[in-house]
Amino acid sequence: MRGSTVAFVSKLNNLSLFATKILRNQHQFYTSKSCCSSSFLSFRNDPATLATALTYSANSKCILLGSQIHAQIIKLGLRNDTFSQNNIIKMYTKCGFLARGLKVFDEMLIKNLVSWTLVISGSVQNGEIEMGLGVYLGMRRTGLVPNEFALGCVTKGCADLGDKELGQCIHCFVLKVGMEKNPFVGSSILNMYAKLGGIEGAERVFECMDNHVGC
Prior knowledge:
The protein has helices at 2-9, 16-25, 33-36, 47-59, 63-75, 82-94, 98-107, 113-125, 129-141, 148-161, 164-177, 183-195, 199-208. It is mostly helical. The radius of gyration is 20 Å and the shape is elongated. Residues 1-34 and 36-41 have low confidence and may be disordered.
């Protein structure tokens, strides 16, 4: 862990004193052991490095550090930078703070496919499946075509909710856009039919898949 942390530290250069104080003294406050051991982080002020820092925060489930990076992004005037905002959403949802991620999403002036997909997947992963499906439908109304990750997440959501009708609609859409042979999408639909008792549908999906993948 120390080797990867040192490599990370070499990329960063601001907020070090503040992060050190927070991470050393607040061991029990929304943080993990791996985050507490990284209390000497500092940050450069470019979007790429800040994105790396946010990824570190998300992977270590360190909401304190992630929140400070979010504040730094606002301070730097990157509130309207879609790339930075997407990484903030990912950090909050992976840390289990879905509401904060949704707030960032709602305030974005420009939302791209990645923005919508992150909120869909974050909602499903945090157990807010109906919200995730609602966001998916909202994305479709904008005219954006969902990617394989969004389709996989909403298909899983349909299976978890037992909503076979919506699941079939999504399957029809997958066929319409020609993504039925995508291994990730195909396996998600296969799992949905198997979970909802649609054995015939599962068999048809399995036969259409070019590359059979494990569930």
